[in-house]
Design goal:
With about 250 residues, the chain is mainly alpha-helical. The chain has a single domain (about 5-200), classed as Tetracycline Repressor, domain 2. The protein is about 70% helix and about 0% strand. It is built from eleven helices and no strands. It has helices at about 5-20, 30-35, 40-45, 50-70, 80-95, 95-110, 110-115, 120-130, 140-160, 170-215, 220. Helix 4 crosses helix 5, helix 8 (about 120-130) crosses helix 9 (about 140-160) and helix 9 packs antiparallel against helix 10. The chain starts with 6 loop residues before the first helix and ends in a 26-residue tail after the last helix. Mean pLDDT is about 85; it is low at about 230-245.
Length: about 250
């Protein structure tokens, strides 16, 4: 997953190894640089903090998952596709579980550091949705994204404590949470459809009202009465006949 031939990959790997051995909270950038075989002058252009190292690790996992996930199975449900994507992600991180367990424990008591990882987690979830063939944009995406972040976060905590090579507890927890999320999304889809129907109805009503406003009023459509034609037989006998009407 990590390119150990590049300084960046070696530094991420070194940080994860040291975290597994000593924890994350007191780990220094100088120690990571030495373990990765670079000096601080070479380290600085690549990373300016441990938070950036974690974000880079997350992106490396994203890339590995996207490379492993094949084309969408048209017959699979969105829940099944998400299950495959997220289990692939956890399997990809399996070699780093000890490090992630120590990091998660240390960050739990440092909410400021945990918050800095939120952006990386949101971007990662966006790509996991894309890998499952789900749209992360628009109204659905606004619900899918935080919902899946919550599902993954709870499953991740269970995975950290699941020492079964087959990850039975993890799979059961993920499946259960995705099923609940699927039911919730059906309700969201119903609400979105209802909102769209209402908006369409309102647009149609406005168009009809504008059309009614553009129609002439009944007074404007009345044709003025023509002046009565002059009758020569009623006038004096010597009256000259008027001009003839145009044919």
């Amino acid at each position: 997953m990590l390119d150990l031939t590049s300084p960046k990959g070696r530094l991420i790997d070194a940080a994860m190894r040291l975290a597994a051995e000593r924890g994350w909270r007191d780990l220094t950038l100088d120690e990571i640089a030495k373990a990765g075989g670079v000096n601080l002058a070479e380290f600085r252009p690549l990373f300016q903090s441990k938070a950036q190292i974690l974000a880079a690790f997350t992106r490396a996992v994203d890339d590995a998952v996207l490379a492993k996930i094949g084309p969408d199975d048209a017959g699979a449900s969105p829940r099944d596709r998400l299950f495959d994507v997220l289990m692939t992600r956890l399997e990809t991180m399996q070699p780093y579980k000890a490090a992630l367990r120590r990091i998660a424990s240390d960050l739990r008591y440092r909410p400021g550091d945990s918050l800095t990882q939120f952006g990386a987690a949101a971007r990662s979830t966006y790509w996991m949705l894309a890998a499952a063939g789900l749209d992360a944009e628009g109204p659905r995406g606004a619900v899918y994204l935080p919902g899946l972040m919550g599902v993954y976060a709870r499953t991740f905590d269970i995975w950290l404590e699941d020492d079964d090579p087959g990850m039975a507890r993890t799979m059961a927890a993920l499946d259960s949470r995705l099923r609940r999320g699927e039911r919730a999304m059906r309700r969201v889809d119903d609400m979105i459809a209802a909102a769209r129907n209402m908006a369409s109805s309102l647009r149609g009503r406005r168009r009809r009202e504008r059309a009614d406003d553009d129609m002439p009023s009944p007074e404007e459509t009345v044709t003025p009465a023509a002046a009565p034609a002059s009758n020569a037989s009623t006038g004096p006998a010597d009256a000259e006949p008027g001009p003839r009407p145009a044919m």
